[in-house]
Write a structure and sequence with these properties.
155 residues, alpha+beta, Thiol Ester Dehydrase, Chain A, 5-stranded antiparallel β-sheet, 3 helices, 8 strands, globular
Length: 155
């Protein structure tokens, strides 16, 4: 496995959404450094805000439509620590759209410096049956539009 190199924020697509994430006291260890689980809690918050920016109702998908959107795979590379009180910008890029799942890379920057890169795969499930289901058409379309605007999908 090769470790990726950090990218400057300016290397990311200009059209990509940048969502501010503030690390709180509860996210940090006694040294004031954000611990690994906090990054994934914040990632899920970013997904909720990102869905809203794409015109999707995240709570409605889960609540009234009973469509699960959970992580089925998550990985991270950390380049620099995040500290209590810092606000980083999380930039989601869609890297794959499948039949019942999609993959996203979240680039996490403070200024130009990338502190972490989170790779997430989310799957859509029927919450009642606890089984995978195809991506809902509105979600598929929103992810495709966003990916096209960012040119983030490989040809």
């Amino acid at each position: 496995m090769t470790r990726p190199s950090p990218l400057p924020a300016s290397a990311l697509p200009a059209a990509a959404l940048r969502l501010p994430v503030r690390f709180r006291f509860s996210d940090c260890d006694p040294a004031g450094i954000a611990f690994f689980a906090a990054w994934f809690v914040r990632a899920n918050e970013v997904f909720e805000a990102w869905f809203g920016a794409m015109g999707l109702d995240y709570a409605g998908l889960i609540g009234s439509r009973r469509t699960g959107l959970g992580f089925v795979h998550a990985a991270a590379d950390w380049f620099l620590p995040a500290r209590h009180g810092e606000t980083l910008l999380f930039t989601p890029l869609v890297t794959r759209i499948g039949g019942a799942s999609w993959a996203t890379t979240l680039h996490c920057h403070l200024g130009e410096r990338e502190h972490a890169r989170l790779s997430c795969v989310n799957a859509t499930t029927d919450l009642g049956a606890a089984r995978p289901i195809p991506l809902p058409p509105d979600l598929r379309a929103a992810l495709a539009r966003y990916a096209a605007s960012c040119e983030s999908l490989a040809p």
